[in-house]
Amino acid sequence: MAPIRSMVKKQKQNKDKTDISRKEGSVEKETTSTKWKNKERVLVFCQRGINFRARHLMLDLRTLMPHSRPDNKLDRKDKLTVINEVCEMKNCNRCVFFEMKKKKDLFMWVSSVPHGPSARFLVENVHTMDELKLAGNCLKGSRPILSFDKSFDKSVHYQLLKEMFTQIYATPNKHPKSKPFIDRIMTFSVNDNRIWIRNFQIVNHEDMSLTEIGPRFVLNLIRIFDGSFGGPTIFENPKYTSPNEHRRNLRKAASFRYVTKRSAKDEFNKRVTEREEHIEESLDDIFHTVTQADINKIKSQSG
Predict the structure, then answer these.
(1) Closest CA to 121 of 244, 249, 245, 243
(2) Which residues contact 74 (CB under 8 A, 6 or more apart)?
(3) Pairing of strands 94-101, 42-46
(4) Over the stretch 43-81, which tens digit does the pLDDT of each residue have?
(5) Which residue has the higher pLDDT, 244 or 3?
(6) Mean predicted lDDT score pLDDT of the chain
(7) Residue 222: helix, strand or coil by DSSP?
(8) Contact 212, 134 (CB under 8 A)
(9) 85 and 219 in one domain?
(10) I need a surface site. Which of 95, 139, 196, 233 has the fewest CB within 10 A?
């Protein structure tokens, strides 16, 4: 009886070992399937001296990107190459940096750290989430669908920008701070040589009805550099006009408008003086009615 009992115990132990190994294999498969592989980290911060609207736009982008990391404001005296060291300290391989000139012109840098490329944009028509007061809403940390216009596939520099935007704004799969839901769409469309960025909520997945959430802003491309925050220029936008030049053209048009108004007023005054100097001819001969006295006068003169 003793050897039979020992054989039964050995069979039970072998079954337990096989069950444990199967469970461990299934757990390993589950962990490998739920593993966070894409380690994209985006540093989103700004320079000192930006206004409230630019600061709210930066905060909106941070809330939309769970893989973003904040940092203190960069001093205006520091060079932009310092940002590469800051990204290395923060363990970030992408960066979105905001800077402002003359307290009115907002610029945005998008860079792949540390080797590049990087692009500089002029930010126009900024509308934040709180300012728009739209009815759209989405889960914080949800993953977005990035929708790009067809024109992003036509030219090389737009293809490069599409890849950079995808690496920055796309939330990595299985990110610890992200939610496993897709309930919003970020659209990138090209119109009037500018990139229009808008954010929508997916209300119904069946008919794909959308409601805008915000923020909403427009990017006017200035240059694309080979390095990170500098280096040789890959592409320069020939249709870009700086804000200073745009304001100068507006002032020039306003001055021309004043000159045209002044010349029109002078011509009007000249016509008024000519009208006053003009002597009107009498119309009595034209509208005079012939009477019997006139007839008798003519007869006496002829006789």
Answers:
(1) 243
(2) 45, 46, 47, 48, 82, 83, 86, 97
(3) parallel
(4) 999 999 899 999 999 999 999 999 999 999 999 889 998
(5) 244
(6) 84
(7) strand
(8) yes
(9) yes
(10) 233
